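Give me the fold.
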Amino acid sequence: MGWARITHPFHPFRDQQFLILKIRRVSGLDTLILRDTTTGTFAVPATWTDRAPPPHEGSPKAACLVDGQALLQLANLIDSSNRDADKGLDP
């Protein structure tokens, strides 16, 4: 079946590679059963690995999750709030 590397940013095994023992569909999601030499076997959604299919153009996953303009507005709001707090004013 090959190997899979965990890519999920918050998974404790991120960037580690594991042998794929099985691929199952659990609750409609492809799930990989992986083997670790120290902890044994465990399951992760395929989307948490490098074996996830690429998103299709126009799908929600293909959309940009960060709006640069909104981030700039948020940064300005935080900066303004910090300046007000330094002056002893309520935000």
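The helical segments are 68-86.
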